[in-house]
Amino acid sequence: MAISSFGKILTVLDLFSVSRPIINVDIICDELALSKPTAYRYLKELVSTDILKRISGTSGDYTLGSKIAVLDYISHSTDPLIQISIPFMRDIVERTELCCLLTYLNHDYCIDLHHETFKDAELLSFGRGCPRPVYVGASPKIVIAHLSKQRIQAYYQQFSKELAQVGFAQTQDEFIQHMRKIKKQGFYLSQGEIDPQLCSLSVPIRFSSKEAPIALTLVASKNRFDFINIQKLIEILQNNAAQIEHKFATLSESQGNPI
Q: pTM of the entire structure?
C-alpha cells in the first residue's frame, strides 16, 4: 500500500531514538532516501505543528517538539485501559512490594503504557514509552502466545535469528510449541532475559477477542524472586487481570461499544 504524503512526513519521527535524540537534514536524506528540498519541506511541516523544534545555535539540528509531550500526557491521562488498571496495579505493588508494568506489544517492539514502583525501586531500562525487544522478557512472550498461529509464525520469521541467539528457539516448530505451552499455563516467568539480575512474571489482560492482549507484569531482582511464592504471585496477577477485563468490558458496554 502506498504511503500518503502525511504518512511520509511522519516517517521522520522513526529516526529518533534514545541513542539519537537529535537529527538533521542529512540524516533524513540518507536514511529515508529523500532529496534535500523534500527533507526540508518535511521539517518545515513538522516544526510548524510543534512536533519538531529546531535547536537554536546549530547549523540545522532538530529534536522532538512540545506537541509530543502534550499528546503523551493526553494519552496517559485519558486512555480508559490505563485509568482502569492503575488502582489495581497500585494494589498489586502494595501487596507484593514489587514493581508492576502494563505493557503493549507493537509488531517490532514492546512498550510500557504505565508502571507502578514500590517506594524508590528502580526499573532500570523500564518505563513508559521505552521500547524493548520482543524476543526477550515475560511481557512480549505472554502476548505473542495469545496471538493466532499465523501471527506467531510471522514473529518467528522476523526474529528467528535473535530467538536463536538468546537460546529460546532454534526452529519455528520449537517456537510455536513454546508459545502453546505459555498460553496453556497462563503466565510466563522470565529469568535474566533482559537483565541478568532481573526477573519478570507476566499474565495477559484479554480485553478483546479480536486484538492482542496487554501484559500485566511484575518485575524485581532475581534475589527477590528467590524468596517469593511464585504461585501466589500468579494468582494475584490473574485475579487483578480478570477484574481489569471485567471493568473494561463494563465500561465499553455502558458507552455502547461492546467488545
A: 0.83
